[in-house]
Amino acid sequence: MLTVQDLHAGYGASEVLHGVDLEVGQGQLVALIGANGAGKTTTLRAVSGLVRPSRGKVLLEGREVQGLEASRVARLGLAHAPEGRRIFPTLSVEDNLLLGAYGRLPILLGYKGRAVASLQRVYDLFPRLGERRRQDGGTLSGGEQQMLAIGRALMADPKIMLLDEPSMGLAPVIIQEVFATIRRLKASGITLLLVEQFAKSALEVADHAYVMERGRVVAQGSPEELKKQERVIEAYLG
Known about the structure:
The protein is α/β, with parallel strands linked by helices and 238 residues long. Helices cover 38% and strands 26% of the residues. Strands 6-7-8-3-9-10 form a six-stranded mixed β-sheet, with helices on both faces. Helix 3 packs parallel to helix 7 and helix 7 packs parallel to helix 8.
């Protein structure tokens, strides 16, 4: 589904990624863990087209997409729920969601009507969003805004979703809700690449995981394998 080969990327003259390799298979949930500044978010941004790689390949279903505009990558089936949620606070919940379908539905001839099935799917997954569909996004709690960010990504009917730090800034009880949602997404068959600061929680839901340090992948394996590695235990699971 997604293959990253020898990926180098950064900002200006500062290179952040130094040859990242990873793979996400169809229907898998793959976690990318590591300390702050390890390059996890930059990896997602380079994969989705928000950052242009200086070297390497990003293949989506075997097609090279590195260097394409983010809007083009999204139309090819990759949805990115970014760090910090990035919702539109003055738009209603429903309008925020409808923007997620903008790239795949015709603007004329019943745009909203054609999005009804997708909206219902999101409301079934997040009943609270359905209850608050007329509220402005900025009036939602942090947990509800995270649900909205994930729901907006789902509206694109993606082949793969990138989730960047979905638990950031949330209370522990809300974090549990977010991970329950991630489990439901996984159970529905959606392919997921998850960046998460809470390594233990990420490994509980992942099929496979990669550990990043200073812009490089330094370990990978199943959660069970990584939980046995002293380096991983000391740094992330201790």
